[in-house]
Design brief:
- By secondary structure, the protein is α/β, with parallel strands linked by helices.
- It folds into two domains: about 10-175, Rossmann fold, CATH 3.40.50; about 185-355, Dehydroquinate synthase-like - alpha domain (Dehydroquinate synthase-like, alpha domain), CATH 1.20.1090.
- The protein is built from 18 helices and eight strands.
- The strands form two sheets. Strands 1-8-5-4-2-3 form a six-stranded parallel beta sheet, with helices on both faces. Strands 6-7 form a two-stranded antiparallel sheet.
- Helix 7 runs antiparallel to helix 8, helix 7 runs parallel beside helix 10 (about 235-255) and helix 8 (about 205-220) packs antiparallel against helix 10.
Length: about 375
């Protein structure tokens, strides 16, 4: 049994401003990896550049990170960072920007390597120092070593094989306050999925379950906002972000399970947002679990049964997916013995089709 999470996590109001020296200590020129607009709108980019200016650190902004970033985007960011002379990386945004920043930190440290390095199991590459500033409440990427990237050559999403934990994560719920409601709902469902899939997992331990249980309790307290019955205030925003971080800590120990594997086909082929895609399979995944695990998850999240949980997710994070695409997702998963092996119960064709058959569609 082991618990490994080497990231220094700072949770407090205005933590980027208060801990600017911690960021500046990582290097002399930062490549800031972020999305197109959100970090400008929520103030996170301004906070980061302010503290870099205050501490005399140069920076270059790469703001072309798309949702579900591609290998091609990583290489473009790498080339820009090398040209500008950056010696550390800062990821600002949701899971896409943070995952991209991890991959970029590897490729910049290994400038002579091709993109295949990210998927070379025989290599043990170093990476540049890395800071993470999360601005959504879903992936928990600020405390995981995982970077999920889009592989257009394989027509799917695939994790980089090398684990890269940020050196420091600066977490402030204020950056969620300007996010679109649907984005928060989708990312919150992703966070819940991490907690469920780490709890019901062959690698689950008392340590990983400690994180999942703490996160599910916080997530439960935010349900009124997610249903539209309460506004998003700073306390709720901080609870959602903290729950997401707990989820990240949990999957950093166990990895994800069947719903995530199924979701990648829906996202790549159907354009369905990741949180909504992975949430669609949660009720079926829990329904087939051991009774003790099922009841504990339902109790912690405040649902009477898996049907109620499934309807809640479908209401706040809807999907519209064809039977053909669900079948394609099932067939891909059944050809992935590594992912099937992390499920703690027998995941045969009947079980997988039971999970995909329980998806609630909005259309």
């Amino acid at each position: 049994m082991m618990f490994y999470m080497p990231t220094k996590v700072i949770y407090e109001p205005d933590c980027v401003i208060s801990h600017g020296r911690d960021i500046a200590a990582l290097g002399t020129h930062a490549l800031i990896v972020t999305g197109h607009n959100s970090s400008q709108k929520n103030g996170s980019l301004a906070d980061v550049t302010k503290v870099l200016d205050m501490n005399g650190v140069k920076y270059t902004v790469f703001n072309e990170t798309e949702e579900n970033p591609s290998v091609e985007t990583i290489m473009k960011a790498r080339d820009i960072g090398l040209t500008k002379g950056a010696d550390f990386v800062i990821g600002i945004g949701g899971g896409s920007a943070l995952d991209a920043s991890k991959a970029v930190s590897v490729m910049m440290k290994n400038p002579e390597s091709s993109w295949e390095l990210m998927y070379d199991n025989s290599a043990v590459p170093e990476h540049l120092p890395l800071a993470a500033v999360p601005t959504t409440c879903g992936t928990g990427s600020e405390v995981t070593g995982v970077a999920v990237l889009t592989r257009h050559d394989l027509k799917t999403k695939l994790s980089m094989v090398h684990k890269v934990f940020p050196d420091i994560a600066l977490c402030d719920g204020k950056y969620l306050l300007t996010a679109p409601k649907q984005l928060i709902a989708n990312t919150a469902v992703d966070a819940l999925s991490h907690m469920i899939e780490s709890y019901i997992n062959v690698s689950a331990s008392p340590f990983s379950r400690m994180c999942a249980e703490s996160g599910m309790k916080l997530w439960k307290s935010c349900k009124d906002f997610l249903t539209g019955d309460a506004p998003l205030d700073i306390d709720t925003a901080n609870d959602l972000l903290t729950a997401s971080t707990f989820g990240g800590m949990a999957i950093a120990q166990t990895g994800t399970s069947l719903p995530h594997a199924l979701s990648y086909t829906l996202t790549y082929e159907g354009g369905i947002p990741h949180g909504a895609a992975v949430g669609a399979f949660q009720s079926g995944y829990i329904r087939n679990a051991a009774p003790s695990d099922r009841e504990q998850v339902l109790s912690l999240t405040g649902f009477a049964d898996t049907d109620e949980l499934g309807k809640f997710i479908a209401d706040i994070s809807p999907v519209n997916v064809s039977a053909e695409l669900l079948e394609q997702a099932a067939e891909k998963l059944l050809c992935n013995p590594k992912k099937l092996a992390v499920c703690p119960y027998r995941a045969d064709a009947d079980i997988i089709h039971d999970i995909t058959g329980g998806v609630i569609c909005s259309g």
